[in-house]
Amino acid sequence: TEAPESEATATPAPTAAPTAAPTAAPTVDPNAPTVSVNNVTAKAGEEVTVTVSVANNPGIVSMMLDVAYDGIFEIVKVEDTAVFPGVMHSDDFELNPYRLCWANDTIPENLYTNGDFVDITFKVADNAADGVYPITLSYDNDEWFIYDVDLVTVDFATVAGSITIGEVAQP
């Protein structure tokens, strides 16, 4: 995991050059606690939704995640799936990275929920170039972003997703 280097700010320009084709996903232990974003396809000017999911949750009470994305995207909606209580996501859709937060630090036992946690809908810029744009997740356990009922930090592997714009050659 990587620690955010500074406070989240609005990012009006692209933050990463798109790749011409999808790249192979990193290998993650299939039994490791994992938080991931799916891969989706859209066209310039459309709205598109990505899903943030959790797998192999070993038991936590609170989680904060930063979702970073290219400046050609604008968040228009964040819908929590209500499978994990304590939703406190940022209400500032211009933040990049955008902060997701579930805080349940007063409950008496860990939550072991897995599955789709939140859907984030982006508006793709009308002039978006064809390519594959990463949607990345990060957290900083030096700042207690993910922890359990005993106030012990819990590490999760993060798997980036992507939004593919237009026609992109497959590997």
Can you describe what's shown?
The strands form 2 sheets. Strands 2, 4, 6, 8, 9 and 11 form a 6-stranded mixed sheet that branches. A 5-stranded mixed sheet has the order 5-7-3-1-10, with no helix packed on it. The protein has 171 residues and is an all-beta fold. It has no helices and 11 strands. The radius of gyration is 16 Å and the shape is elongated. The protein has strands at residues 34-37, 39-42, 47-55, 62-68, 73-80, 98-103, 115-124, 131-138, 146-147, 157-159, 161-165.
Question: What's the helix and strand layout?
Answer:
Layout: E1 34-37, E2 39-42, E3 47-55, E4 62-68, E5 73-80, E6 98-103, E7 115-124, E8 131-138, E9 146-147, E10 157-159, E11 161-165
Parallel strand pairs: 1-10, 2-11
Antiparallel strand pairs: 1-3, 3-7, 4-6, 4-8, 4-9, 5-7, 8-11
